[in-house]
Amino acid sequence: MGQKPSIPKGTRDFHPEEVLKRSYIFNTIEEVFKRYGYAPIQTPSMENLNTLTGKYGEEGDRLLFKVLNNGDFLSKADDALLNAKDSNKVLRQISKRGLRYDLTVPFARYVVMNQHRINFPFKRYQIQPVWRADRPQKGRYQEFYQCDADVVGSDSLMYEAELMQIFDEVFSHLGIDVTIVINNRKILAGIAELCDASDKLVGITVAIDKIHKIGKEKVRLEIANQGVAPDKIDKLFEVLDCKNLDELSKHMQDVPVGLEGIEELKKFHTYADQIPKKNVLKFDVSLARGLGYYTGCIFEVMSNDVAIGSIAGGGRYDNLTGVFGLPNVSGVGISFGAARIFDVMEELNNYPEGIGAVLDVLLLATDEESHLRSFKFLQSLRDAGVKADLYPMPSKIQKQMKYADKLKVPRVIIIGSQELESGQLSMKNMQTGDQEKLTLDEIIKTILPS
Amino acid sequence: MGQKPSIPKGTRDFHPEEVLKRSYIFNTIEEVFKRYGYAPIQTPSMENLNTLTGKYGEEGDRLLFKVLNNGDFLSKADDALLNAKDSNKVLRQISKRGLRYDLTVPFARYVVMNQHRINFPFKRYQIQPVWRADRPQKGRYQEFYQCDADVVGSDSLMYEAELMQIFDEVFSHLGIDVTIVINNRKILAGIAELCDASDKLVGITVAIDKIHKIGKEKVRLEIANQGVAPDKIDKLFEVLDCKNLDELSKHMQDVPVGLEGIEELKKFHTYADQIPKKNVLKFDVSLARGLGYYTGCIFEVMSNDVAIGSIAGGGRYDNLTGVFGLPNVSGVGISFGAARIFDVMEELNNYPEGIGAVLDVLLLATDEESHLRSFKFLQSLRDAGVKADLYPMPSKIQKQMKYADKLKVPRVIIIGSQELESGQLSMKNMQTGDQEKLTLDEIIKTILPS
Fold first, then answer.
1. CA dist., res. A242 & res. A212, Å (int)
2. pTM higher than 0.90
3. Is A75 on the interface with B (CB under 8 A)?
C-alpha cells in the first residue's frame, strides 16, 4: 500500500541542523549587507523565457528549467513540428516561463522595469534560490542559493572598496581566513592589445582564468592556438608576472586602456587603504574571472585553509541593463557562493556553540497533575525567551529521557508531585549529568544569562 | 534597441519596503515557532509529479505547475498521442516534476522518507513559497509563502493547546486583535450521524463551512439537495446553534463519535485554560474548514478589525502519511496566511516605526579630502552597528540632499573641511530639520541608544 516517495535527482531536503547552519551563514551575510546600506528586493521564481533566453550562452539556455504552459498546452502547438518531434521549436509553443537561473539577469530586468521609481545609485541585495539543470553530482545541486549585492547607477570606485570591505567583514564574522584577489578587466584588455590580439580578448581571458588550474604551459598552448605569435605570448607572460601596479605601468605606457585600469585600481586603493583589513587583499594580474559581462575591477575570494576554489567574487559591469533597453548604467556587484561557504564552514567547524540545538530545555512530567502544571511552567519559560518544550504526556522517566537523548537537548527538568510541592525543580545537564534544585526564576537566569 | 522586459502574469517583484515588512511578519512568526520548540526544515521547490498528483483533487492537479524535462523532451513522447494532441497523456511523457503546491504534502513525503532518523513526536516548521496556476486576479498570486508548524507522531491534545497559544502570541506580537475559533471534526461527524447522513459527511461539511458567507437558507438548500430530509436538517440547525459543549453533549448522548469530539475539546481546554490569553478563544459548532484531511480539532483565526476571512488555521489529521506508505501517524498543524496577514498589517499600519528605512544615516561630503575621510567615518559608524552610507562622490550639497530626500533617510551628516578640522560633525534630522554639532561618538550614541 502507498507509493514509495522520493525527491527529484539533484534536489535535496534540508534537515533542521542544516537549516539552522545555513540560516546562520545567510543571516551573517544579510546583516552586513544591511549595515552597509543595501536594500533587499525579491523577484519571482519564474521569469518569462524571453527574459532568460540568450543571456547565459548556449549552455545556459540548455540548463534553464522550463515551465509548461497550463491547461491544454498542446492545442497551440504546430502539428508539423509535433510530428517532426522538434523539441526546440515546440518548446516556444508550449512553455512561456522558466525558473530563475541567477540573480543578476532578474535584477537587471527589475532595474529597467522600475527605473522611474529607483533613486540612483541604487544599492540592493538579494538572497534567493536559483535553478540549473546541471547533471546532478556530489556537491552540485539543481537548486541552490545565491547571495548578491550590487550598486547600479554610479561609477564611483568607492563602491569597489566598500564591496571589498563587505568580503572582509563577512568572512571575518564567519571565522574564515581568506585572500581577496583583485584585478581589472581593462588591464587584461591592455595585455591583449600589447599582444596585438585585442580581437581575441575573450579567448585570452578565458585561457588566463585557468592559469592556476592547468598551469602556464597549457595556457600558452591555448593562446597560441588562437593565433597569437610566440614572442607576443612571451610578452604576455612577462606582464602577467608583474607583482604591483608600478611595474605594470611601465609595460602599459602606450596602452591607454591598460593605464585606465591601473588608475582605477589606484583610486580603489585610496579608499580601501583608509580602513584596516582583517584579511589579505592581493593584486593579481592573472585574475580573469570567466563571466563575460565584467568591464572594470574584478574580485575573487579564496579560503586560505580549505582548497575549494573561489567562495565569493564579483566585479564591475558597464552595460548589464542594455539588453533590456536601458544603456549606459554602470554597476558593480558581488556574489557569495553559499554552498561552498557551507562546505568550508563544515570543514572548519566554525559555527557558534549550540548552533544546531532546537531546544534549550525539555520538561518531563511524571503524573497527570504535574503534566498540567508543567504546561504552565513551560509557558513561563517561553515567555521569558527560553526555547522550551514538554514531553506530550506523563510517562515513565526512562522513556522520556530516551526522547531527550535523541533530541540532543542540553538540559531536562523533571517534574513530579514532590517538585510541585517544594517549588524547587530539578534541572539536569545532559552533558555532565549534573543535577541542581532550582526555582523557575533561577532556571531562567541559568539558561539565559543576561 | 533592447526588449521591453516584463514578468509573468500572477507573479510580482517585491520592492525594499515590501521585503522589509514581509520579513518582519515572517520573523515574528518564526521567532515564536522556535521558542515553542519547532525545528525548521526545507524541502525542494520541485517535487516529483507522482508525489504531488492526486493529493489536491482534480482542481489541484490542474493548478500544479509542471516542469518540462530537459533536453530533447519530445524524443520519448508517443507519436500517436502527439498527433492526437492529447495534452494530458503527453504530459506524463515530457514532464516528471512539478512545483510545490503547498507545504503539507512535501512534509508528509519528508516524514516518510526520514522516518528512521526522526525522533517522534516531531515538531517542525517550514516557511517557503508555493506555486499555483490560479487565474491571476487582484490579491491572488501564483507564487506565495506559506508558514506552517506541525507536530506528527503524537495524539496528545496538549499540542492543540500549544498551537492555539502560538496563534495567540503571534497575533498579539503583530498587534492584530483576533478571534481564535475552534471546533472538532468528530462533532461534525456526529451531526451527520444525527441526520442519518454519515455517508454525506463531506458534502455537509462543505456546506456548513459556507454558513457565514452565504447564510443559513442557502446552506439548507445545499444540504437538502444532497438528499437529507427536512426534519433532519431542522435537527442539524438546532445542533449548530449550540453555544457550548454541555448543551451539545445532550444532543450527542447516543452518538459516540460526537461525544469523542466533545471529550477532545474538553481535554484541550484543561491545557488551554492554564494560560491567560490575549485574544478571544471561541467554540463554534459551525466551523468546518474545507480541507478534506482533518479528523479532529480544527482552528480558524479571524481578524476582529479587518473583514478579510481567515488569516490562519489548522487542525488534526490522522493519516496524512498513509498515502506514502506510513499509516497511523497522527499529526496536528497550523498555517499562517502570509498574504492576508500582510494586507491586514497594511490596513492597520501596525509596523514598528521606521520598518521601511534602509539607512539610519547618510553622509554627505563637500570636497575630495572630506569624502575620503568620510569613508573612514562611515566604517566607524558601520562597525558600531549603524546602517550608514556615504554619497559616492563629493558634490553640491543640494544634489546630495535631493538624493537623501528621495531615499527617505532619517538623518544626514554634512562633512566639509571645517568639520574635519573641528571634529564636530553636523547632523541634520530630515523630518524636523533640526541640526546638531556632534562628535562621531555622540552621533553613534544618538542613533543607537543602548
1. 16
2. yes
3. yes
Query: Is residue B304 a contact partner of residue B174, using CB atoms and an 8 Å limit?
Result: no
- Which of the four pLDDT bands, split at 50, 70 and 90, describes residue A184? very high
Distances (CA, A) of B180 to A347, B21, B38, B285, B443: 47, 24, 21, 13, 46
ipTM given for this complex: 0.95
Contact across the interface for A62 and B50, Cβ inside 8 Å: no
Residues of chain B with CATH 3.30.930.10: 16-348
Nearest-CA distance A271 → chain B (Å)? 6
Percent share of chain A, pLDDT over 90: 88
* Contact between B161 and A45 using a beta-carbon 8 Å cutoff: no
Q: What is the pLDDT of residue A293?
A: 84
**Pair A321, A152: CB distance under 8 Å:** yes
For residue A311, pLDDT over 70 is answered with yes
Could you tell me which of B189, B147, B180, B188 has the C-alpha nearest to residue B272? B180
Contact A362, A424 (CB under 8 A): no
Q: Taking 50 as the threshold, does the pLDDT of residue B1 lie above it?
A: no
Whether B343 and chain A come into contact, CB under 8 Å, resolves to: no
- B43-94: pLDDT as tens digits: 999 999 999 999 888 889 999 999 999 999 999 999 999 999 999 999 999 9
Residue B145: pLDDT band (50, 70, 90) is very high
Statement: residue A1 has pLDDT above 50: no
Residues 23-52 of A with CB under 8 A from B: 23, 34-48, 50-51
Average pLDDT over residues A259-278: 97
- B122-135 pLDDT, tens digit per residue, is 999 999 999 999 99
Sheet with B425-429: list strands edge to edge. Answer: B388-390, B361-365, B411-415, B425-429, B435-438
What is the rounded distance in angstroms from the CA atom of residue B179 to the CA atom of residue B277?
Answer: 11
Tell me the HSE value of B192 on the side-chain side, using a 13 A CA sphere.
Answer: 22
Is the minimum CB–CB distance between A9 and chain B shorter than 8 Å?
no
- A253 CB within 8 Å of a chain B CB: no
Q: Which CATH superfamily is domain B361-447 in?
A: Anticodon-binding domain (3.40.50.800)
What is the DSSP secondary structure assignment for residue B84, as one 8-state letter? T
Asked if B47's CB is within 8 angstroms of A39's CB, the reply is no
A vs B, Cβ pairs < 8 A, gives 307
Residues of chain B with CATH 3.40.50.800: 361-447
Which B-chain residues 212-251 have CB contacts (< 8 A) with chain A? none
Chain B residues inside the 8 Å CB shell of A40: 16, 19-20, 23
Longest dimension (CA), chain A: 93
Query: Among all residues of chain A, which has the CA nearest to that of B76?
Result: A85
CATH code at A16-348: 3.30.930.10
